[in-house]
Amino acid sequence: MNMITNHMPTAELQAIDAAHHMHPFTDGAELAAKGARIITRAKGVMLTDSEGEEILDGMAGLWCVNIGYGREEMAEVAARQMRELPFYNTFFQTSHVPAIALAQRIAELAPGDLNHVFFASGGSDANDTNLRLVRHYWAAKGKPSKTVVISRKNAYHGSTMAGASLGGMGGMHAQGGLPIPGIVHINQPHWYAEGGEMSPEEFGLARARELEAKIAELGEDNVAAFIAEPIQGAGGVIIPPETYWPEIQRICDAHEILLIADEVICGFGRTGNWFGSQTLGIRPHIMTVAKGLSSGYVPIGASIVWDEVADTVARAGDFNHGYTYSGHPVSCAVALENLRIIEEEQLIENVATGTGPYLKEKWEQLADHPLVGEAHTRGFMGTLALTPDKARRAPFEAAEGTVGLICRGHCFKGNLVMRHVGDRMIIAPPLIFQKSDVDLLIERAVKALDLTLAEIK
Ligand code: PLP
Fold it and tell me: Ligand 1: distance of its center to the CA of 75 in Å?
């Protein structure tokens, strides 16, 4: 077998990749025809590819590299932990220091009575845990009929059977017989695309009240929980109207429904607070976290659980659930170091009051571009709607996503990672972004928008 290295010609790497590597969310035939862009190194907010091109990462990897790339401290902590205790499990009455320390730190950071942590390997399996946990909780409370979880169309909660079912992505449900039973979806608070003539405030209330209607339809005694991202990420950075979350909170409180905030993207600083729930005024019973917990340096996720739920489950005996890597010592040690860096380097302050307001000002000016119908940010999440007709918020005649894909292609060719969701362009940069990084991002984004406009005219 030949040795694969960074120094091999790109075409050779691409051919081996296409021959043997099945990629997530990728068209295999297209991959074989064009070849993947191969990333070889990264430092700070910049990626380097196998051709030596430097690419500005406007997506923090997959919304996760909050502290930026190439932090030596993280590598040192990982190496130290691997030497001391590379693995031990947390099953059957055993524990270890990294898991204990990280659970305590997360409990300190999490708001309210969210003081218990169940570890997973990522966000999808943490949401699987949540589904089992809420059903087990209600059964332990003597209400075993409370099993249905209500979610939203166009939500993203992961790729496992439960994660993808909780999510509301039509393209995912179309493959593999999803959603699994016991999960239902209401409409999303996406005013720009679906608000019609309503004001955002009216629309936010109307969409929240769909939850109350769905609970009434199913019967309160059959509903376990409602799950939602504070701000939908993979759905296109959908920032809900101000009226939405207070009404959702009222409904969950009034009907004895557990509220699960999926903080996999919003958590650990991205919205300008430790958690998106704090930014949007949500009081969840469970928060799902992953990504920014370790800044993507190692795989880890968790469910952060309200005292009453955790105590009820603890009193009910064994919770017959767990992953080999629940509380993996290396992941926990690295995540702790990541949280230290976020705090000591005041990265959340950078989002809230440092670079964040500058990003907002510059990004929202993109709404003046002829191709852009709206441009918004919340913290370090940004969204642009592309449209042929600003006044009507109209979609393009071409199939949805055609223009977004063209724009994404121009971004990538111009060495900017900006993702498209349909005909929306989105960003979620590392939390270390400085004003000069914003300037570069805007310069490259405008160039890509201009080229897109020229191409579709
Ligand atoms: N939940 C949300 C809100 C996400 O954005 C994601 C991933 O993008 C997940 C869950 C799934 O996390 P993972 O890919 O770590 O399984």
Answer: 24
